[in-house]
Design brief:
Largest sheet: none
Strand content: under 5%
Number of helices: 3
Number of domains: 1
Shape: elongated
Helix content: over 70%
Distance between the termini: 23 Å
Organism: marine sediment metagenome
Protein name: LonB AAA+ ATPase LID domain-containing protein
InterPro entries: LonB_AAA-LID
Order of helices and strands: HHH
Number of strands: 0
Length: 56
């Protein structure tokens, strides 16, 4: 994706590193969202459960 976005004909180490960084960031965002939902308590328990199931 990142090589194509930069119109590069080859995937370089830079592109792979960027892909890994982006994947880690997406994982962090999911973890943060789950933590927020847990902290909100039972009022969003059902919503939280649906969210967690939807990402797996």
């Amino acid at each position: 994706y990142w090589a194509h976005k930069e119109r590069s004909s080859q995937v370089t180490e830079k592109h792979v590193e960027k892909a890994i960084e982006e994947k880690i960031e997406r994982s962090r965002l999911i973890e943060e969202k789950i933590q927020e939902m847990i902290e909100e308590g039972t009022k969003t328990g059902t919503h939280c459960q649906r969210f967690i199931l939807s990402i797996f």
